[in-house]
Amino acid sequence: MTASLLESGGGGGGNPTKSPSGGNSKAASASAAAAGALMRGGGGMGGGGRFLCSPYFVTASLLVLMIVSVKYFSLSSERDEILERMETVQQQLKKE
Q1: What is the 3-state secondary structure (H, E, C) of the chain?
Q2: pTM for this model (two decimals)
Q3: How far is residue 16 CA from its own chain's centroid?
Q4: Residue 28: count of CB within 10 angstroms of its CB
Q5: Under 8 Å CB-to-CB from 43, ≥6 apart: which residues?
Q6: Is the pLDDT of residue 19 over 50?
Q7: Digit-coded pLDDT (tens) for 44-81
């Protein structure tokens, strides 16, 4: 429906072959067709959506983000434990 509104000049009445600025009707219809192709997900593609809006891509991205965040926090806590152990060993060495 929106593509047909763009091709007819915006649906605001008036002459559908003229652009709002009063320019060439061929240029107006070409820009309307290009805008319609962009809204449908690209030229040449049939009813398929864009890759970034794919539920598979979103799910995989969230899964990767979750795995990376879990790895980060586990490594961070492990690092803190190692630093505490090093401090205790250094204090023990200083006492001797």
Answers
A1: CHHHHHHCCCCCCCCCCCCCCCCCHHHHHHHHHHHHHHHCCCCCCCCCCCHHHCHHHHHHHHHHHHHHHHHHHHHHHHHHHHHHHHHHHHHHHHHC
A2: 0.40
A3: 35
A4: 21
A5: 34, 37
A6: no
A7: 555 555 666 888 889 999 999 999 999 999 999 999 99
